[in-house]
Specification:
Strand content: under 5%
Largest sheet: none
Number of strands: 0
Distance between the termini: 65 Å
Helix content: over 70%
Oligomer: single chain
Length: about 160
């Protein structure tokens, strides 16, 4: 089907408006607001001649959102990993130390009559994980020490009858 030049201009303007809206979404992460703006932009341009125009525009918007979301997620993960690496040191070193500490505790506890409860074992695992982070990375990062106290508090509270 052949469309008049003015219709194609309106279609192009609608697509540009949606692209702009997608960029706003990426910056603000407010999908509902952006979708409302897209709908408003679409209605303002009044593209009613083609019954498939709305579906094509919506599909194009979804494809853009998906592609940008994947790009943003990869960028966010990379940034988090870089930040964590500077805080806790190389992951492979921290992971090796954490696993060696956990294995040491498991070997020491092997054959004992009193098994650890799940929350005790998990708390110990997490405390050893935090110890490995401290030993491998920044020992002055207060949150690591607070986390250790928190895991110990969860178990001590449960032993005193307070379950969280």
């Amino acid at each position: 089907m052949h469309y008049p030049e003015t219709y194609l201009d309106e279609y192009e303007r609608a697509f540009e408006a949606m692209t702009k809206t997608v960029n706003e979404f990426i910056q603000t992460h407010e999908r509902e607001t952006v979708m409302g703006k897209v709908k408003t932009s679409y209605q303002e341009l009044q593209i009613n001649d083609d019954p498939n125009a709305e579906a094509r525009l919506a599909s194009a918007l979804e494809n853009l959102l998906e592609a940008e979301s994947k790009t943003a997620a990869v960028t966010d993960v990379t940034a988090v990993l870089q930040q964590r690496g500077s805080r806790y040191g190389r992951f492979v070193d921290q992971a090796e130390l954490a696993q060696r500490l956990k294995q040491c505790v498991r070997n020491h506890r092997a054959g004992r009559d009193n098994d650890l409860t799940y929350d005790q074992q998990e708390a110990l695992d997490m405390i050893l994980h935090k110890i490995a982070r401290i030993a491998n990375g920044d020992p002055d990062y207060a949150d690591s020490w607070i986390d250790i106290a928190g895991y110990a508090k969860l178990v001590s509270d449960r032993l005193e009858g307070v379950t969280r």
